[in-house]
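Fig. S4 source data, part A: sequence.
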Amino acid sequence: MMFFAKLHPLIVHFPVALLTSGVVFEVYGSLRKDEVVTTAGRFNTRLGFWCIFPVLLVGFLGMLSLGNTEKFKDFLSDHLRFAFLTAATFLIAMVVSRYFRSRLGRVVYFLALAAGLVCVLRTGYYGGELVHRFNLPASGWAQ
């Protein structure tokens, strides 16, 4: 299980980069009416969305190997909360983009993308604090 705690910080950056660049490209492409940029953003957003799930699984398995979490439990709790909010928000965006193609659906889609971007950045903030402030996974190993 300790393997997963070390693996998670290594693989999490890929979906974070895809989701961040995807949202930025989709918004920029839509505002500039540039279909190539919008398509690139849409591709990154969808690939990033699907990459969330293995990262969530690895992170959850890694969390199980952590020992005394008392000193960083608030950060871990917030990291988990925003990780699941990220997945849920992008899931809403994917469902809306697939099944609600009206003008209102497009507005809801872009609002979900914006909320998802905020969630992924907050998740990253708390994850960074766990790694750099609390020296995880090294200091949190179960004995």
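Fig. S4 source data, part B ends here. Residues 2-64+81-140 form one domain.
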